[in-house]
Amino acid sequence: MHLTAFPKSYKRIFWTGISNKVIISCQNVAEVTLSSFCVFSLISGCGTFTFLSSAVAAISGLLMGYELGLISGALLQMSSILALSCKEQEIVVSSLLFGALFASLTGGFLIDRFGRRLAIIIASSLLVLGSLILLPYESYGIFIVGRTAIGISISLSSIATCVYIAEIAPQHRRGLLVSLNELMIVIGILFAYISNYAFAHVSHGWKYMFGLVIPLGALQAIAMYFLPPSPRFLVMKNNDEAAKKVLERLRETSDATKELTVIKSSLKDEHQYSFLDLFRSKNNMRARMLVGLTLVFFVQTTGQPNILFYASTVLKSVGFQSNEAASLASTGVGVVKVVSTVPATVFVDQVGSKTFLCIGSSVMAVSLVTMGLVNRNIYVNFTNVCRSQSPEDFFLQRPGNLTGVTNGSLKDLFASMASPERLSFDVQRSPDVARTGELNRTALAGGKSTTGSYMESGEVPVVLKWLSLASLLVYVAAFSIGLGPRNT
């Protein structure tokens, strides 16, 4: 993958594999002022066919955002159904990132070798396949395989989509069209949280959540087949005549010779750079790389990826006790991300990325300090947050299951279930899980817990609960403004 794709409009693609998450941040810095984000402005500035091609490709962003936010709510159901331990839940979340890491390391080679359009088709097909694997089975191992395939898909499609849109867009609308993909990502996250809430009370609702993307992924793969390949890719493959025809179709003109010449010239300049030039002072490439890596590093260390993956779990730990309440509260995260991303995208060229970065980082710091102070006064049973649901909890939470059952019979029932072999297994699997189970059994027997008043009552003060949610939403909004995709 070469370093510079456009001599006057440097396209920066940062793809860094980190243990927590793989960041694929695509931004095109063009000489354009974003004065409007309406569809009419997009179409009038670049042509209907170019806009439609970009919109179809940007479905990848929607699918990516959906898959990133989906696990937040699905994990609440799966942890009980599959009896997942804390470590197994972490692996379930990370499996998508392992796949994304693999694709990020090979994606540049693949899109240069086989083309951007074909890479998007393959990625969409792989997402459909990975989702189909998840539906008929309730197996921990199968789930890891399916989520890994989805991780490869969304990572590959993100790389290919950014490049494809940038290469089919006219120069004066390039930044705006690339931002369309970024907007679709946050909309996908919002849809994921809405889906989490809609299926929170449905038996095996997580299967419906994962199944919703199958028609859309298949539709994108089919639609991309009928769209033209990137003209720049065609020139790279020495197919100038086909590239010229694609440009004429995209620009709705009878002569695209001038733009074709510009593409050839930029490709010639591109070959002057090598991978090692990233670490040299040539054209200030080393400083550019360090700035980009630093921004990506701070995107990770601020904890934003964890919020996306564990929003419902975190909210459940601070007082939103049911799956439905936690999923509904996390929907606010998706709404805030969309609302704050749009103005940040529109005004970043007028206000400046550095200004947005300073403002966003300052607000993030304040919100995180506030959240920490609030949660310091809330007892959070971390083991109970991530542990699999015990037989006692599962039984007691089912309406109607206590009819005609006395406390004595409950104790006898659960005492027989908690055999020495089972208790030994719990201790080996996780001492915290075994301890929490013992606390539940003590409560059923009429004993008193001494771990804290909030744990005994199972309640969190309303003021602290909502203040914690408000701090979280402010943090998410500040991140979108300061470290959002358009600014990094």
Explain this structure.
With 488 residues, this protein is an all-alpha fold. The chain contains 23 helices and 2 strands. It has helices spanning 39-46, 48-57, 59-81, 86-114, 116-134, 140-168, 174-198, 205-211, 213-225, 231-236, 240-251, 257-270, 285-301, 304-317, 323-351, 353-376, 382-386, 391-396, 407-417, 420-429, 431-444, 453-457, 462-482, and strands at 11-17, 22-28. A two-stranded antiparallel ribbon has the order 1-2. The chain is globular and about 70 Å long. The protein starts with 10 loop residues before the first strand and ends in a 6-residue tail after the last helix.
Strand order of the largest sheet: 1-2
Instruction: Give the overall average pLDDT.
Output: 76
Estimated radius of gyration:
25 Å
Topology pattern, helix = H, strand = E: EEHHHHHHHHHHHHHHHHHHHHHHH
Q: Tell me the number of strands.
A: 2
What is the terminal-to-terminal distance? Answer: 20 Å
Low-confidence stretches: 1-43, 388-457
Shape: globular
Number of helices: 23
Question: What is the percent of helical residues?
Answer: over 70%
| SSE class | mainly alpha
Strand content: under 5%
Biggest sheet descriptor: 2 strands, antiparallel
